[in-house]
Design brief:
Blueprint lengths: L3 H14 L24 E5 L14 E5 H7 L7 H5 L13
Antiparallel strand pairs: 1-2
C-alpha cells in the first residue's frame, strides 16, 4: 500500500464489498478517520500474514476490527475463529485480548 489516500480508497471499497462487517467476528466496523486506532476501526488484515510471506495484494487482504486483527496476530486465516474461540454472541470488541 502506498499513500494514505490510496489506502482510504481501498478501505472504502473493501468496506462496501464486506457490507461493513469484520471478516473475523462479523460485527460492524467503523471507517471514520476519527475512529482510527480504536477497537472497532476497520484495519487491513492479511489472510497470509506478512510475517509468513504474505503480500499487500488485494486478494490477500480483508478488513477486520483493529482489535480482532491484533488478537489474530499471525494465526492462519483458516484457523482464526476456532483458535480465538469467539462466542457466537460476543464480538471481538467485548473480549479483552
Amino acid at each position: 500500500m502506498k499513500t494514505n489516500a490510496r489506502k482510504d480508497r481501498i478501505r472504502k471499497r473493501m468496506y462496501k464489498k464486506q457490507a461493513g462487517l469484520c471478516w473475523i467476528c462479523g460485527e460492524t466496523m467503523a471507517i471514520s478517520k476519527s475512529q482510527a486506532g480504536k477497537p472497532r476501526y476497520a484495519s487491513f488484515d492479511h489472510l497470509l500474514p506478512k510475517a509468513d510471506g504474505g503480500s499487500n495484494v488485494q486478494s490477500n487482504i480483508r478488513l477486520a476490527h483493529q482489535q480482532c486483527n491484533n488478537m489474530r496476530g499471525t494465526i492462519p486465516a483458516v484457523n482464526v475463529v476456532a483458535v480465538l474461540q469467539l462466542p457466537q454472541t460476543e464480538s471481538c470488541t467485548q473480549v479483552k485480548p
